[in-house]
Design a protein that fits this description.
The complex is a heterodimer of chains A (about 375) and B (about 325). By secondary structure, chain A is mainly alpha-helical. Chain A has helices at about 1-15, 20-40, 60-70, 85-95, 105-115, 130-145, 170-205, 205-210, 215-245, 255-280, 285-300, 315-320, 325-335, 340-365, and strands at about 45-55, 75-80, 100-105, 120-125. Chain A folds into two domains: about 15-40 and about 170-365, no CATH class; about 45-145, abc type-2 transporter like domain (abc type-2 transporter like fold). In chain A, strands 2-1-3-4 form a four-stranded mixed sheet, sandwiched between helices.
């Protein structure tokens, strides 16, 4: 094993002398965590709604008052009064406003007669987030409008749902943190493992090793253990910094940190094994660089790190089911967001260990000790 | 027992035969050169002998170990300087040597003494703690020479060790190789396409071209083996028909090669042939445009045995260039 340690020592000495590599592999996941966390995590507010009142009756005034209540309360949207429907629609198409609420003539009369009064919401549906937020807000407002104080009973006659949240509110940035930790491990595996491995091979550095009496097993173990150590360091740094940035409650509780460490180590080994399998026969230094973006997308997004897997189409769920990111992200979500025990992550650890064994075995079989 | 024994070794890459049935032996303590242009098969041959490539056919033993069946034995007994500069640029000179000492399993007690001795031998002790990336090309080569010797091998393979170095660094590397070879009684196998390098360094030279062994002997014997002690290279303005026969009839001329207006005359008495040549040309009214007289060199030996000049062969793209393009 002393030869394996020589390889590890060499890799770690080189790593220490590469501050750019260290900085870049940590900087990107932190930037992604902060930018995505705040970009997607916020509540949509201050949308602009044109209100075209063609009725001016009592019920129309009530609708306008409810709109003003939303604008002054939740602030989901602000209203702008339009007298001309055509102008309002032009402004909607030009992006000046996000929706048009039309109160048609006879709305108040139909409301009074309980003869199916109708309001119209015309919205810019090119932005799903905006249009669904607007529709949800309007639905709530109409429900309030429909509530008849006279019908109030001492006991409710309709079923209601009370929601109980098991955990404290989880901001989106916390939801993203597990994915960012796995991403930092992956970045280090990709830059500090894959790219350097192929660059060294292209520069002929491997020739230097291959003429020594080092065995195939010692050589592979050296490359992979050094890659795992570097990736674990990146994961631990991101877990620490990311937990503080995202505001994870009680992030440094020793038992939880130990469990997170286990997940990071197993994840690092699974990803370095995958990388070694992909790179074992590659000689062109451009290949790992070209694969970087594709792999990043293929592994990160289907994992459920940014969006629930249940929302994926079947083919993407298939990718997700064999993606080591999926299991690493799930395990870290359990530990960081729910502080669960080992039982909750046992399946994830089992998959990651099995994945490592299979990929490393295939990579070892494909590895050539000659040029 | 010879230090290196190569028998009918062949290496094919698909339909291309890089090494075509070469045989030779290298005796202990000898500096043996493989001389030839790019693509001649030198690097492929050295890669087979250092266990980096398996041969397609034939056998070879290094230090008595078969290069296929006893590859680990071969690796223990050899030091190798590959063609590409393969030191770790980010590590210091000392760290490079230390890592390789560990890779070769040199005992801790011996390690530091050996490294210090080697740093002195290659005159790099003042730069021991400098990162290799801050050293010149010649100094990096010296780091690699030291690295290749860190486990005290008995046989040292150097694949074009001075390619890309300036003339001063080349001479320094030659001196270094000579010195360590004498100090450690090393057997050295060196590949080169530099005639002067082969001439100055090697006890024996094998001329390799298109994967085949064309000639093998000491530089002196190789030079003596071709006609003439001097080579006259002469060009004329519009020489008449049959001019080569006139030249062949000049005193002491042993052979005439060439075409059109440029001729090479091998002579065993250069000054006498030169005088006669000038007199004959003047009498015939044929103007001499240029004339040079040289002692027989390895370049002449190469031309004699391969039918073309080494400098011409170096211009041709090597068939192996594509395969090892990145590495070079």
């Amino acid at each position: 094993m002393h030869r394996t340690w020589a390889i590890i020592e060499r890799e770690l000495r080189r790593f220490r002398r590469s501050p750019t590599l260290i900085f870049m592999s940590l900087f990107f996941p932190i930037v992604q965590l902060v930018v995505l966390g705040y970009a997607f995590g916020g509540i949509v507010k201050h949308l602009k709604i044109a209100v075209v009142d063609q009725d001016h009756g009592v019920s129309a005034v009530k609708v306008r008052e409810l709109c003003n209540a939303v604008a002054n309360g939740a602030g989901t949207f602000e209203t702008i009064a339009y007298s001309d429907q055509g102008q309002a629609l032009d402004d909607l198409r030009n992006g000046g406003i996000n929706g048009v609420l039309i109160i048609p003539p006879d709305f108040s009369r139909l409301q009074l007669e309980k003869a199916a009064p109708r309001l119209a919401l015309i919205e810019d549906n090119t932005d799903n987030f905006v249009s669904s937020t607007l529709a949800a807000s309007m639905d709530g407002m109409i429900a309030t409008l429909n509530r008849q104080p006279a019908d109030t009973h001492r006991l409710p006659t309709q079923s209601t749902l009370d929601t109980v949240e098991v955990y404290p509110y989880v901001p989106y940035i916390q939801y993203l943190l597990p994915g960012s930790i796995v991403m930092s491990v992956f970045m280090m595996v990709m830059i500090g493992g894959g790219i350097i491995f192929i660059d060294d091979k292209a520069r002929g550095l491997h020739e230097g090793y291959l003429v020594t009496p080092i065995t195939k097993f010692e050589l592979i173990a050296g490359f992979n253990l050094s890659g795992t150590i570097k990736a674990v360091m990146a994961g631990v740094v991101l877990m620490t910094v990311g937990s503080l940035i995202a505001g994870i409650p009680n992030p440094f509780e020793p038992l939880r940190m130990m469990k997170v460490m286990v997940v990071i180590v197993v994840t690092a080994f699974a990803l370095i094994s995958l990388m070694f399998l992909l790179m074992v026969r590659v000689t062109d230094p451009l290949v790992p660089r070209a694969m970087f973006g594709v792999l990043n997308t293929m592994l990160y997004f289907p994992s459920g790190a940014v969006y629930p897997r249940q929302g994926f189409p079947a083919w993407m769920q298939l990718i997700s089911s064999v993606d080591p990111f999926t299991y690493a992200v799930h395990a870290l979500k359990c530990l960081l967001l729910k502080d669960t025990g080992v039982t909750a992550i046992a399946g994830d650890l089992f998959f990651l260990v099995t994945f490592s064994i299979v990929t490393m075995t295939v990579a070892t079989l494909l590895f050539r000790r000659t040029l | 027992m010879p230090a290196i024994d190569v028998r009918q070794i062949v290496k094919r890459f698909g339909t291309f035969t890089a090494v075509d049935g070469i045989s030779f032996t290298v005796e202990e303590g000898e500096i043996f050169g493989l001389l030839g242009p790019n693509g001649a098969g030198k690097s492929t041959l050295i890669r087979m002998l250092t266990t980096l490539l398996p041969p397609t056919a034939g056998t070879a033993s290094v230090s008595g170990f078969d290069i296929v069946a006893q590859a680990d034995g071969v690796r223990e007994s050899i030091g190798v300087i590959p063609q590409a500069m393969t030191s770790d640029l980010e590590l210091s000179v000392h760290e490079n040597l230390l890592i390789f000492a560990k890779l070769y399993g040199v005992p801790r007690a011996k390690r530091n003494r050996l490294i210090d001795e080697l740093l002195d031998a290659v005159e790099l002790r003042p730069w021991a703690n400098n990162q290799v990336k801050n050293l010149s090309g010649g100094m990096r080569r010296r780091v690699e020479i030291a690295r290749g010797l860190v486990h005290e091998p008995s046989i040292f393979f150097l694949d074009e060790p001075t390619t890309g170095l300036d003339p001063v660094s080349r001479v320094a590397v030659w001196g270094m190789i000579h010195r360590v070879q004498k100090q450690r009684n090393l057997t050295v196998l060196i590949t080169t396409h530099y005639m002067d390098e082969a001439d100055k360094l090697c006890d024996r030279i094998a001329i390799v071209d298109h994967g085949q062994l064309m000639a093998l002997d000491s530089p002196m014997r190789l030079k003596a083996s071709i006609p003439g002690k001097n080579i006259l290279e002469v060009s004329f303005a519009a020489p008449p028909e049959g001019w080569d026969r006139v030249l062949a009839a000049l005193p002491h001329v042993e052979s005439v090669t060439g075409q059109h207006d440029l001729f090479r005359l091998a002579s065993d008495n250069g000054p006498v042939t030169t005088t006669a040549l000038m007199e004959t040309a003047t009498r015939a009214g044929v103007a001499v445009l240029s004339l040079s007289v040289q002692s027989t060199s390895l370049d002449d030996v190469f031309v004699h045995y391969t039918g073309h000049a080494l400098r011409d062969a170096l211009q041709e793209p090597s068939p192996m260039d594509r395969t090892f393009m990145v590495r070079r």
